[in-house]
Amino acid sequence: MAEDREVLREIWEGRLPVCFTLATEEVSTPIAPDPFYLMVPRLTYFPLVTDKVRRHFVRCVVPDKTDNEMWLEFEKHPLKWHYPIGLLYDMFVTNAELPWQITVHFDKYPDNKILKCPSKDVVESHLMHSLKEADALKHKNHIMALMQERDHKQLWLGLLHDRFDQFWSANRKLMEHGGEEGFRHIPFRLYAPQLTSKPFLQYLVKPIENEKKMTIEDLLQKANLNFESKGPFQVIIHGIDVPLVTPLQWISEHLSYPDNFLHLCIRYPSI
């Protein structure tokens, strides 16, 4: 990969300030607990950074709920733990108000809307599955299959402990490609809840077609959606309004999440 290490590191170091508050109806103590503030990495997943949040609030819920799985909510939306934190913010927060106000729950887990996550091992399994899916799109799964177990652990532990060099020492292998053609296909998911009832859109897009470098605009055209029907729109990833002329190969190499997918959100500033 034509690696721009400064871009990779800036994306890795993206952070969001979050204010966690226990749901009012679940407070069992005479005085409600103080909110809990955290600065969290955009690229990680909530179960990897909320152990302290759980310990702070669990003492204030009724005893028979203390062993329940904790879940998070923003403005009536249960937050899917298997979505990266930065993606969740880009999906749901349109006014950029910070810190991000999130409600903590220990009761009435909405398992019809979000998956269960009893341990960090489940997050690791999810990450490895996503990496294999992305590698199948990019390299027919050749790279993940050839990587040793210690490489897989480097990926996981690098994300778990927020270690850029450890993660990228293994991830750079997944970003390699031969010649000028780039990846076979670009791993991406497109989130456009204003235009479709599907949780996300995903289809095959090559980085180069007919000797032309494909761009974000080309990717959108293949969706067969009228993106301009609701007014001017932005394509957001990592909080960045990405120009539509950005080449897909470059953005895939530099702005993918640790699962190796581009998670692209359609945002309408006027809505």
List keywords for this structure.
271 residues; alpha+beta; Ubiquitin-like (UB roll); 3 domains; five-stranded mixed β-sheet
Could you characterize what this model shows?
The chain is α+β, with helices and mostly antiparallel strands. The chain has 3 domains: 5-105, Roll (Ubiquitin-like (UB roll)), CATH 3.10.20; 120-174, Autophagy protein Apg5, helix rich domain (Serum Albumin, Chain A, Domain 1); 188-267, Phosphatidylinositol 3-kinase Catalytic Subunit, Chain A, domain 1 (Ubiquitin-like (UB roll), Roll), CATH 3.10.20.90. Helices cover 32% and strands 17% of the residues. The strands form 3 sheets. The protein has a 5-stranded mixed beta sheet. A 4-stranded mixed beta sheet has the order 6-11-9-10. It starts with a helix and ends with a strand. The mean pLDDT is 95. It holds the Pfam family ATG5_UblA. It is a peripheral membrane protein. This is Autophagy protein 5.
CATH architecture of the largest domain: Roll
Percent in helix: 25-40%
Broad CATH class of the largest domain: Alpha Beta
Number of helices: 9
Major sheet description: 5 strands, mixed
CA-based shape: globular
Major beta sheet, strand line-up: 2-1-5-3-4
Radius of gyration: 20 Å
Q: Might you state the CATH topology name of the largest domain?
A: Ubiquitin-like (UB roll)
Distance between termini? Answer: 38 Å
Strand content range: 15-25%
Sheet/helix structural class = alpha+beta
Counted up, domains total: 3
Task: Provide the succession of SSEs.
Answer: HEEHEEHEHHHHEEEHEEHE
Whole-number average pLDDT?
Answer: 95
Sequence stretches where pLDDT stays below 50 over 5 or more residues: none
